[in-house]
Fold this protein.
Amino acid sequence: MGMNKKTHERINQIVSTILLSIGMLVVLTPLGWMMVSALKPRDAVNTYPPQWIPTDQVHVTIDGQEYFLYDIPVNGEMRQLALLDKQGGTGTFVNPDNPSESYELTVASGTRVTQVKLHWENFVSAVTKVPFGHYLLNTMIVVVFGTIGTVASCTLVAYGFARFRSKAMPILFLLLLSTIMLPPQVTLIPTFIVFQKIGWYDTLLPLIVPAFFANAWDVFLLRQFFMTLPTELDDAARIDGCGPFGILWHIIIPQSYPVLATVTIFTVLYAWNDFYAPLIYLQSQEHWTLALGLQSFNAVYTNQGNLLMAASTLMVIPPILMFFFAQRLFIQGVVISGIKG
Amino acid sequence: MLRKRLYLVFVLFMAGLMLFTACTPKTGGNAPVKITIFVGFGAGSDPDSMAALNTIAEEYNASHKDIQIEFMFSTWEEHTSKFSTLLAGDLAPDLAFPIGIQGIAEFYDEWIDVSPYVKRDTYDTSDFYGPSLQLLNFNDKTIGVPLGVYPSVTFFNEDLFDAANVPYPPKQYGDTTWTLEKMIETAKLMTLDENGNNAASPNFDPTKITQWGWGGWCGPFRTVPGKFGGNPLGMSDDFKTANMNTDGYLEGMQFLYDSIYTSHVRPSSVDEGSTFTGMDFTFESGKVAMFECFSWSSYAFPNFTTAGNWNVAAVPAGPHGDVVSPVNADTFAIPGHSKHPDQAWEVAKWLMQPEMQSRLCGIFGCIPSRKSLASGWVDSLSAEYPNVDFQVFIDSINYMDASPNNESWVPNYSKIWDATENAMSRILSGDSSDVQQVMNDLQAEVQGYLVEYWAAHP
Amino acid sequence: MRRGNNVPHYAWNNYMNKASKPLPLRRLESLWGYLFISPWIIGFLLFTVGPMIASLVFSFADYNIVSPPTNFGLSNYIKLFTNDPDFWHSLGITATYAVIAIPLNLVFGFALAYLLNQKVPGLAFWRTVFYIPSVLAGVAVAILWGLIFNPKFGILNWFLGLFGISGPGWLSSPDWAVPALILMSLWSVGGGMIIYLAGLQSIPTTFYEAAQLDGANGWQQFFRITVPLMSPVILYNLIIGIIGTFQYFTEVYVLTSGLTGGIGGPAKSTLFYNVYLYSNAFRYMNMGYASALAWVLFVIVLLLTLLVLRSSSAWVYYEGELHNK
């Protein structure tokens, strides 16, 4: 029996690992492309066919002017020459080390010299072309306060909906859900006017304050989890003299670390990535957030795909790290829920 | 009960607040007037441009006491929602800049007429290209002063022409043999299948194309009819009767259809959007021999260069002899909601000075609208791309579709824009092969929008 | 199987289940309840209800944002139902997408979470890997998916090619754009996954141990323990899925704005409901009509949600449910 179970588990593990590896390939290929693109020169982000290895066309400088270097046969011998001028199909090629050595050759018979080169400086450009530190600070303010507000308010509200009855509760709950059923595009203008009238335009307040008043997505999620927690422990605590706040603090929250971690992750990520609300509510660049600032690399009539990708790569690293370390909370969840059975 | 009533009062109060958009004029003493300039209708919102514009603002503010300026930026994708929230929130910017004919049309009723200012200041417009002034003269008002123009030219890949040993397209306008028909004939020689056969050869396999002779016109649908003797408006001059299935439109659309599915020289939009993923222009692939585009494609010139040695040529003549270089233009516009239109005009004048114009066009990629700046523009670009004949762009200015323009205002502007783009998409993607039917559908749809508009605007 | 283990209830919950119990306790309970949900109520009154009512008012008017609403009446709604093929077209696309994407996302998210709740080596690593797609946002996603869907060089058609299938043009093809978007939605099931994962982590291992002692095999355990105990989470993902997919917007907007035919293209094949709504609001400057579209959608989604909630008493099991009446 025991042996059997072990073999079974082993097979399970192998199958799972194979499935996960296939999934990983699908998931990480786009990410890999993003990083590769981030390391390309700006004039070779989109090439045909797509290149997985960042490659430069080699230039040489002659008399302060840059020219392409070609691999081209001269009298049967392959040479590396710079294309100085082109008239029709014929080019003037010179030896870059000795510009007076010049040949008239058919350009089509040669190919441009390429070399593999990783443009790490793109990451530097991505953070220096915009006031990165400033944007980061604003983003951190929004993320930290927004997350505190969301998690605190949503926990209270979800607890209210999950553990207290009254005739109005189901209606109020439906009302809560209904607030996210109306497409936000049509409430944007009136909402904007509200914030403008109270003088919050071009401040971070519209991005932070509403978080303290709970939102339907997270309240609903937390309520669903709170409702799966058995009421026996509540009752026991009540007998021990705990009030409603005490029960929330001592009984509900300790059993809910996984879902609280989930809500935290979602909220942080949302605040981190959101560029639309900052775009609408902020004007001066000193108040801009990272997501908004980095979006500008994608402006029309620009050609900075490599910087956009470098910026995007930098943007995903903090949330990924956060998630990786938030794992512990999920695992802790198991231990705690173990005691209740 | 009381709570209910309080609630009702509160709701009514809030609803009232929402609808309350009246102006509350601010009275300023001797403090300088702040002019906000909305950047988002076109170029200017990337980090480099933002930095350059902020520098210009600093220079202006250092040298002016009564007026201070501030640029505010929006992504192009969200410019309509950002701009309309500002208007609704009584935060209207004082200038929209840069803004093109499309941006003007999107909020046509919002912009004020600048002709009184032009008259008052006897503003000298003699240096501007005639067509660029014409572009900004609308039926009932003049909006802005020309900053720059973006005419179209034929781009071609010299390496591909060299390899096929086919003569380059002509650089000079006035060559009557350079027609759309000739262009397609040339493109056939430049279109290759995987066996190396060109599209003029009987062995050509159109299912295995590896190189296309023509990449099409990069402009929207309304750039097409002018080349076939049609009117870019697509409707009668009183904007009451749609003319979408008449010759210019129908012929142009049939031409596009044939170039993809009959002569096979142009990739379908399915090929474009998929094979050439991520590229703004298929020409960047080095697998397209020619295409026609506006000069704002200059931001992609480095990519063209990576794809090969390239150059530019004249726009070919249409079947009825029309030589049309579709044009876009940039200017400024003063919103009617601005609280300081006079000061906005002063700032705009400062921005339109010759030296400032070439500097701004350097940022946005336009050709300055002043004739005196043409040679400077050609020189600066030639220094960067010595092999390219930039004079062709300047020559194209004489062939611009200035009035009506392919972006000119029509009623229900964006609806009709979407309808025409959708019709073109049906043809280019192969969704429909019945050009006449697609254009009949479009005619009915556009006529419906016109009727709808005139019912609401008697 | 769980109810048998229940210890008798004590304290007020239990008293109140009996109809004869005194009112004050009940009243106290509801007062506490209101106190706890008050942050939301205040926020709702301050920031939400006003704009919602305003949009309802706009839906009965011509409103171009720039000038105040005029022509109050039912004309937007009349036009919408009688004279707007794009309304029905976009609703159809959205409903089709929802019917396919919602179940697929539920199943894949659950399956992935289940897999990542096993004793697989390097769990934290795997979970992070599958969560990564949900972290990416905006234009980067569009560019990356362009590559995946590339018929010539994309990995998707390469993969199909292994089975001798020649893949289509995906996003730029009117027939394949919506299937492409459905596939794309699966890429980011990582968000749903971590919700399921949080749920799976909350199931006490003792349940499985007890079931094993009873001789239940893996499948029986899955269907008799895992699924019922996860049903509140499934309900959540289902309802949020309905609400979210009917408002599906950002991905389409980002992915199609650069294609021929513009937003909602090619050939209107991705003209989702909210894409059409957005165009009316901020491109056609017809906020009144957009608001009417929004309120029609609101009613549809509300009815669907009520339907699901009503059915949920039959299939959702709450360990800590409070029994009214």
Summary: Chain C touches chain B through 47 residues (CB under 8 Å). Residues 41 and 279 of chain C are 32 Å apart (CA to CA).
